Amino acid sequence: MQYFLADIQNNLSDFMTEISLQIEETQLAGLRSSLMPYTQQMREFQKDYIEQITSSSGSLENFHTRYCAQREINPYVNGANLEMVCHTIDNSKLLTVNKAS
């Protein structure tokens, strides 16, 4: 019986982790969609960079901390493009969700 309950607990934990990852990916996809109007005029390497920073919540949080909050110089996105990216990230629920976790 103990092994049976341990298996159920492991399966439930795996299931909850999978749901969490799916929710995060859905939110990241929504953010990429929100950024699309601003990335249309960007060069390919800049679009690739935006895709990279929105590939995980960790990458997004790192980008936001360095380039939006601390205002470090970004070698790929700057000026009005950076402001729009930061503004869009600020308006997303991703940072709020991560801060609550």
User: Strand-and-helix sequence, N→C?
Assistant: HHHHH
Low-confidence stretches: 97-101
Distance between the ends? 33 Å
Radius of gyration (Å): 17 Å
Q: Quick one: biggest sheet?
A: none
Oligomer: single chain
What is the average of the pLDDT values? 86
Beta-strand content: under 5%
Number of strands: 0
Number of domains: 1
Structural class: mainly alpha
- How many individual helices? 5
Which of globular, elongated, flat, extended, rod-shaped describes the shape? elongated
Please give the share of residues in helix.
over 70%
Keywords:
mainly alpha; disordered C terminus; 101 residues; 5 helices
Written overview of the protein:
The protein has 101 residues and is mostly helical. The chain has one domain (2-100). The protein has five helices and no strands. The protein is elongated.
